[in-house]
Amino acid sequence: MAYLVIADDIHIVLKDITLSGRLHSPERPKGLVIVAEKEDCRLLKKENEYLSRAFIKRNIATLFTHLLDPPENQDFDIPFDIELMSRHIQQLTRWLSDQPLLGRLPLGYFAVNTAAAAILDASITAGKRIRAMVCHCGRPDLAGPKLPLVRSATLLITGSENVYLTELNWQAYELMTCEKQLVVIEGDPTQFEEQHKAQQIAHLSANWFDRHFPSPPARLYLVSTHPFYQ
User: I want to staple 7 with a disulfide (CB 3.0 to 4.6 A). Which of 28, 50, 88, 227 is the partner?
Assistant: First the structure.
């Protein structure tokens, strides 16, 4: 299925930060997933291509965006500042809600590493607006005491070779009371040189969002090349 690159180099001015990103969408999306990156991550650079393809096949739009600006990326402690990243995601979510057409779409979050804790935290404030989330090779445990408050359906993905990370994901899983699933992939899913692993993760993620997004509105089409005002 062909997809539209609605905006390949966008700048989103929020209260505390200006985020950059790319928006990909099919003509008739049933939902929008925010892929929240905490930095210019090699892992997500390779994964994004597979995610886009898998999501487009299921009529899901994708907004890839960095959570931190360049100065923040230079501060070693900030990528572990869950509250700061969560605040940025919350502001982005409110901004999307104000956009024509895009604001009508159900939303989902996808993140890796410490950004996984940030999307879990942000989802509590966003409430029913966030239908589903995927945390891949993440640190959901860093959301700490807020984990039982998460209500959005959450998929945790980790790898069998990273025993420590898998144990942290299981600990977080046990504290969560929402609809949830933990998938342990054989091997190390961060090794995206192995194409089948990347495709497997994209497939798992796309299926999870597809299950939790309703059918698209009959008249919601994104066909213009003008960013956000389709």
Answer: 227
Q: Give the pLDDT band of residue 190 (cuts 50, 70, 90).
A: low
Give CA–CA dist 18/92, Å, rounded: 10
Q: Can you tell me the distance from the alpha carbon of 171 to that of 91, in angstroms, rounded to the nearest whole number?
A: 29
pTM, entire model: 0.87
pLDDT of residue 132: 98
Residue indicated by tokens 């929240």 = 36
Residue ranges per domain, the chain?
Answer: 4-212
Beta strands in the chain (DSSP E): 4-13, 18-25, 31-37, 60-66, 107-113, 130-138, 153-159, 180-185
Task: From 220, 215, 216, 210, select the one nearest 134 (Cα to Cα).
Answer: 210
What gap in Å lies between CA 124 and CA 149, rounded to an integer? 7
Torsions phi, psi for 194 (to 5 deg): -90, 105
Answer whether 7's CB lies under 8 Å from 228's CB.
yes
Distance CA 48, CA 34 (A): 12
- Please name the residues in contact with 55: beta carbons below 8 A apart, sequence gap of 6 or more: 24, 33, 61, 62, 202, 205, 206, 209
More confident residue, 88 or 69: 88
CATH number belonging to domain 4-212: 3.40.50.1820
Taken in order 121, 87, 62, 168, is the CA torsion positive or negative?
negative
* Residue 118 to residue 143: CA distance in whole angstroms: 7
